[in-house]
Amino acid sequence: MDPKKKTVGFAPDNDVNTADLASPGSSNNSSTVGSPVSALGNTPDIGTHSVTFSATTAEPRTINAAGSRSSYEPMKSSYEEQWGLTDRTSSSSSSAGKAHKLASPREGSGFPNSNKDQAAGSNKKDTKGKRNSASSPGNPGTSSTGKESGSGKASGLCIQPNVGASSKDSPQSGGTASAGSTGPGSAGGKPDGSQKPSAPSQKSMTKAERRELQEKQKAEKAARVSAGLPASGKKAAQIVSQPNSGFSPNPSKSLATSFPGVEAEKAIAAAESTSQAKRRERLTKEIGLFAHLDPPKFANTASAPKDLHPAVVNVGLQMAQFKICGANARCVATLNAFRKAIQDYQTPPNNTLSRHMQTYLNPHISYLVTCRPMAVSMGNAIRYLKYEIGKNLELPDEDARSLFLEKIDNFIRDRITMADQVITSLGLQKIQDGDVILTYARSSVVEGLLLAAHAKGIKFKVIVVDSRPRFEGKQLLRALANAGVPCTYVLLTAIGHVMREVSKVILGAHSLLSNGALYSRAGTAVVAMSAHERKIPVIVCCETYKFSDRVQLDSFVQNEIGNPDELVNDQYNNYGHSSTRYHDSVRGSSSSTAAATNGTKGSGGVLSDWKELRDLKLLNLLYDLTPSEFVTVVITEVGLIPCTSVPVILREFLPMMQQ
Amino acid sequence: MAENFDVVATYKTLLLTSPELSMPVAAIQSLVELIKHSKATTMSEFMLSIKDASQQLKSSVRNSISLSAGCDLFLRFVTRNSQDVADFESWKRTLIVRGQSFVEKADACRYKIADLGVPFIKDGSVILIHAHSRVVSLLLQKAAENHKRFKVFVTESSQTQGGIQSAKVLRAAGIPTTIILDAAVGYVIDKVDMVLVGAEGVVENGGLINQIGSYQMAIVAKATNKPFYAVAESYKFVRLFPLNQYDLPTYNADTLSFQELNVDYDENAPNADGSLGTVTGKTRSLASDSPLTATSQAALHMKVSEDRASQGSNPLVDYTPPNYITLLFTDLGVLTPSGVSDELIKLYL
């Protein structure tokens, strides 16, 4: 195994001679070789490889590559690989990071795989081989351009055979060498096997090349160190292959090693077919499963039409910045803004207010959507408003204006304000002395209910469960604590611990869907499920105007993606960063340069530069879906209903309300 | 106003005179009687008297669930029709007519349910029923009339002895019936093909309020994957949404509360064993181990008999959540539990 890695690492290195890029390439490669294997489900192997490599070679650049990645990355990459979220082809840097990160602990922990021993044994050989290759006269002919070497690395990253392929680009010398070397390594010392995979990899390699261009700059930094290495394609390859043959018996012994090679072929094919999409994905940092969702939006008036009413613009901006947050608040704010817009509206000549109103409001609505995806509550309210407008096309201007204003006021009063009062009074029946009520994040209705219960003199305790990154529960906690309600505050991670003493769970809702599913703040499903697990009643408070005729089976089909920066850029992440540096410095004096670079890089938190990390994508989903069986009861203004009755309410009750 | 009309007394005589009458129907009938005797001259006075009467009825019995279902239904019926009142007297007359026709139709409900339920009873099956329910008995009688051959296990239902009554009725219909202990449900469940229970009330989510013991039968049935069917007339649907057993209107602080341990020992225990100063639960256990067991056992016996006497603290009904119920046979059709909510919303909104 090691030989392969080594070779892989070095073939590019050789190239590097001419091109400065090589060194990162080499380091990456070595680790990369491991990574694809890991992707194919042979993690221990990878671990060993990486261990060997980092431990023995202890090259500054390798460490460099590793050090520049955060500790978080390895996990991410493996996670994504597991779910097929990353390009196999692009997993290089992260895997390298992983290898290094994991190196020391893995060494300590005995691997089930026999490779470890090999690795240990081979370590020395590895270094030797390296030296050999280094000392061997560089063969300029084989040396490809910096780009090429980079590509080699990239392909290597994705799948070992690729590495071979990359080198193959420069046909005989470097190519064969690397291919040969890789093959045995990957295929468990079977030269033949190595050749096969290389063929399909060529295509992907060219793509990899292109990708590599992007990475060039990054690579150059680390490349300086390695520039001095002589790299000879042929000789290096031969030298490399020798250790391979020497070790071939060992690798072949372990079945696990031979499999990756075979599976790698499949992986390549898969990677090629999706590589186009993946490429786009990587550029935009969007995640495959969620590509259909709008990317996070940011407050921006530049794209807004000029004739928008300032009140609406204002509300839009506030929503984009999450200053107005929560289904009720957003709906009320929107309606009030529209109210102002209608008030200030001047009918254009040759038109009537009611006929022109819809055209007038449409850009306002679409502006709000550009600020943040529309809440279900807002959608329903706007639909109602449009319905009223469409119903009264023949009214004189001033009558129509006052009618619409009145309808808006009535909607807010009947469907939101009064509804909340009714829900509160109904909810009070379900809170008894001695209850321990758990709630998640913050819902205006739940807050009102709990405060009312306290005001009524019911003696109960509240556990506020909260979560990153928004910590909305703190607001609720503040309100309850001010009112004198005994409270406990925990994060979602402690849910299992606190659930033991809970007697009721009361949750808010963003929307209730027609199949009875609850669509609410991300994390709600976990709370509801863990309560259901203990047969604790889960009470959802939801006004009927939030009912949706949509049906959704999971949280993927429809959701909202929040700003991913929220996940990584906060003060708490500095902790992780410092610990990373500590490990780097412990690793040895040779890594001092790496640590230094690392230090300069991560001044704003360990993942502040996550956008630079090619294989790291962040997902900040704002909502999740709780299936109906986890909800005991929904408290609405029309009474307590099971959540499966949502369509009944939509069918029987809402037409009545619209009149 | 019904000054000298006693709605509660009417209700009780109705139940006594016609044992086939179920509580909600009797309640509606007594409310109709109230209207007949009503001398109210204004709408609001009239409404007030009806509300008063239904409140009286509800508070007159310990277990008011099915009764309140009838009262609520009638109230809803009255208020829904009160919008378009031209002539107060004629409106009162229509109310009486409709109320009476409802009472008459209520009887037909059971036959309809029986017809709907019979196809579910397979030849050669063994059915487990709980206590006594008129509608369940009728269903089984009908099935027997239709030449279905089946056997019935009926739980004794120790509080009301309803099982014995059921067994009498069923044996009279020629159905082989065995009375089992309430505690033997788990024992017989493997031999049982389906569980049939009646209902005091069907709540909003399709759950069931029924004579105590239904819930554990449902749990046992669920655990062994046997179908658990509830049989209930639609006038037993109530607008309640209990979250658990302790959320029922029949629950109060006395229900199954822990009696104070030292009531009887105050005199006995310290006298028997002077070294035991304070009288607590600990005293009790010590006392029973002491040589003076006889005294303490006598005390214990007293305690138990006292518990028997104060059986009011034992719940009469329990609540079976909808996820344990396979189907509900009602006169509106065979419903899933969530279908109940559908019907209730249609009725009350």
From TrEMBL, chain A:
Residue spans of biased composition, Gly residues class? 182-191
Keyword Cytoplasm attached: yes
Compositionally biased spans, kind Basic and acidic residues: 206-223
Tell where it localizes: Cytoplasm, Cytosol
Main localization is cytoplasm
Domain of life where this protein originates? Eukaryota
Q: Which regions are flagged for Low complexity bias? A: 132-156, 170-181, 588-600
Annotated GO CC locations: cytosol
Location of region: Disordered: 1-256, 582-604
UniProt-listed Gene3D superfamilies: translation initiation factor eif-2b, domain 1, Translation initiation factor eif-2b, domain 2
Q: Report keywords, A-Z.
A: Cytoplasm, Initiation factor, Protein biosynthesis
Task: Identify the Pfam families for this entry.
Answer: IF-2B
Give a GO molecular function annotation for the protein: translation initiation factor activity
* InterPro entries per record: IF-2B-related, IF_2B-like_C, M1Pi_N, NagB/RpiA_transferase-like
Biased region (Polar residues) positions are 24-35, 49-71, 111-121, 195-205, 239-256
Q: Which family does it belong to?
A: Belongs to the eIF-2B alpha/beta/delta subunits family.
| Quaternary state and interactors | Component of the translation initiation factor 2B (eIF2B) complex which is a heterodecamer of two sets of five different subunits: alpha, beta, gamma, delta and epsilon. Subunits alpha, beta and delta comprise a regulatory subcomplex and subunits epsilon and gamma comprise a catalytic subcomplex. Within the complex, the hexameric regulatory complex resides at the center, with the two heterodimeric catalytic subcomplexes bound on opposite sides.
- The protein in question is named Translation initiation factor eIF2B subunit delta
Taxonomy, top ranks, is: Eukaryota, Fungi, Fungi incertae sedis, Mucoromycota, Mortierellomycotina
From TrEMBL, chain B:
The family line of this record is: Belongs to the eIF-2B alpha/beta/delta subunits family.
Q: Which gene encodes it?
A: GCN3
Organism, per UniProt?
Answer: Dissophora globulifera
Q: Which domain of life is it from?
A: Eukaryota
Its main subcellular localisation, reduced to a broad class, is cytoplasm
InterPro entries per record = eIF2B_alpha/beta/delta, elF-2B_alpha_N, IF-2B-related, IF_2B-like_C, NagB/RpiA_transferase-like
Q: Where in the cell is it found?
A: Cytoplasm, Cytosol
UniProt cross-references to Pfam families, sorted A to Z: IF-2B
By what name is this protein known?
Translation initiation factor eIF2B subunit alpha
Subunit structure of this chain's protein? Component of the translation initiation factor 2B (eIF2B) complex which is a heterodecamer of two sets of five different subunits: alpha, beta, gamma, delta and epsilon. Subunits alpha, beta and delta comprise a regulatory subcomplex and subunits epsilon and gamma comprise a catalytic subcomplex. Within the complex, the hexameric regulatory complex resides at the center, with the two heterodimeric catalytic subcomplexes bound on opposite sides.
An example Gene Ontology CC term for this record: eukaryotic translation initiation factor 2B complex
Per its UniProt record, what PANTHER family does this chain match? TRANSLATION INITIATION FACTOR EIF-2B SUBUNIT ALPHA (PTHR45860:SF1)
Which keywords does this chain's UniProt record carry? Cytoplasm, Initiation factor, Protein biosynthesis
Query: Does this UniProt record's set of keywords contain Cytoplasm?
Result: yes
Q: Which GO terms describe its molecular function?
A: guanyl-nucleotide exchange factor activity; translation initiation factor activity
Q: Where are the transmembrane segments?
A: none
